Amino acid sequence: MKDKERLVDLAIIGGTGSDITLDNVEKIKIYTPYGSTSAAISIGDFKGKKVAYIPRHGIDHSIPPNKINFRANIWALKKIGTKFIISPSAVGSLNKTHSKGKFILIDQYIDRTKKRAETFYEGGQLCHIGQADPYCEYLNKLFFETGKDLEFDIQNGGVYICIEGPRFSTRAESKMFRQWGGDVVGMTNYPEVVLSAEKEICYCCIAMVTDLDVWAGECSECGIVEFAQRCEKCGGTVNKLSVNVPEVLETMVKSAENLKKLLELTIQKIDIKRDCLCHHSLTDALL
Ligand SMILES: [Zn+2]
Ligand SMILES: [Zn+2]
Q1: Residue 172 CB: number of other CB atoms within 10 A?
Q2: Ligand 1 centroid to 62 CA: how many Å?
Q3: How many CA atoms lie within 13 A of 116 on its CB side?
Q4: Is 4 among the domain residues?
């Protein structure tokens, strides 16, 4: 493939609900210095834009979060000209105001991963990339406004705690993440976000709440409360919650339609010619 042949405008890295319908789809395989991408990249037309799609966990959902080749995915997307990455991600809630089905446009992260390749600069030229504001404000605002118009439960801004996985958290960990100010917990956003910054690509994470993680207890009578034996509101018994795979999948399927709408309407609004701060993130970062 020659560089200028198949430029795309933007890319989606995602799973359930994020495979919006593209026209004239072509699947391409890109060889990267870091090995294979999660799957072949689908490229197609969507309302006048060229959109690329990578299923983050592979086509048959067989790649665990801690084994995703994040560098290959981002490197390949840069190679085909991607300027904007949209990354929907299933998360657990760490806050009782974030119910299942809610969308949160992440604006901060805390990295709790342990053994992931998290930079393209491993020696020789050094890069100290700024991460004070790691997510694209422009994309966040567009998605938020569209979500509001659609009357979705959506919030602009939130802290994503990225854990290594593939296991879920203990109750003690989950409680600690809440104390740190986390809004949601997930396993895939880091280092996708920082690698995108190293490639000067606008990056946006749409976190979809699929479960309430394990900090919460649920009142048998009236809903969610924090840890307590009895519900403060109605005195009902509080049952500790657990998170499990069927619950996550069930909510993802339910949210898939909404996610698709959100993506399709917002992508139409993205000004692909816009010059964004994110496109200059390497300025003053290289040594
Ligand atoms: Zn940007
Ligand atoms: Zn109650």
Answers
A1: 10
A2: 31
A3: 29
A4: no
Look up the CATH number of the domain holding residue 47.
Answer: 3.40.50.1580
pTM above 0.85, yes or no: yes
Structural domain that includes position 195: 10-280
Task: State the total domains in the chain.
Answer: 1
Of 87, 97, 81, 85, give the one whose Cα is nearest residue 270.
Answer: 85
Q: Kindly report the number of other CB atoms within 10 A of residue 234's CB atom.
A: 12
CA of 222 to the centre of ligand 2 (A): 4
Question: SS3 for 183?
Answer: coil
- Kindly list the catalytic residues: 211, 213
Q: Identify whether 133 is part of a domain.
A: yes
Any domain includes 5: no
Residues with CB in 5 Å of ion ligand 2: 219, 221-222, 231, 233-234, 236
Beta strands in 103-222 (DSSP E): 103-105, 108-112, 154-156, 159-163, 184-186, 202-211, 217-219
CA dist list (Å): 16 to 13, 94, 136, 159: 11, 22, 23, 22
Distance from residue 218's CA to the centre of ligand 2 (Å): 8
Q: What share of the chain is helix, strand, coil (3-state, %, to 5)?
A: 25, 30, 45
Joined together, the tokens standing for residue 7 give 């430029």
Query: Taking a C-beta distance cutoff of 8 angstroms, is the pair 70, 115 a contact?
Result: no
What would the pLDDT profile of 151-191 be if each residue is shown by its tens digit? 999 999 999 999 999 999 999 999 999 999 999 999 999 99
Task: Flag whether 169 is in a domain.
Answer: yes
pLDDT tens per residue, range 64-110: 999 999 999 999 999 999 999 999 999 999 998 998 899 999 999 99
Share of the chain above pLDDT 70, in %: 98
